[in-house]
Amino acid sequence: MELQTAIERISELLDDGELETSNTSMRIPTALRDAAALAVKELGIAPSATALTTAALRATLDTNVIRKRVPTLVIWLSRPRNSTAIHWRASLGGCARQPPR
Length: 101
What we know:
Elements lengths: L2 H13 L14 H14 L5 H21 L1 H8 L4 H9 L10
């Protein structure tokens, strides 16, 4: 499968509103499992550890699909070449430097 075709298919799957679920088994480090359970119980960051895991997986896939679609933009943003870009990134918390005055 070509890269662009794979990216498009992943995007379609992520955008699918289907609520059907699948039973899957994942081996994850015990400490990570325990941290997720504690975060759910004590911090209320998700309804369940499964929901937290699903949200993290979706966010990772979304981020990487975006990066694959716009590699030039990602490179440009990671290496600002003028004070406007530095200021823009600083306002997003991505860079400590401020533009020259």
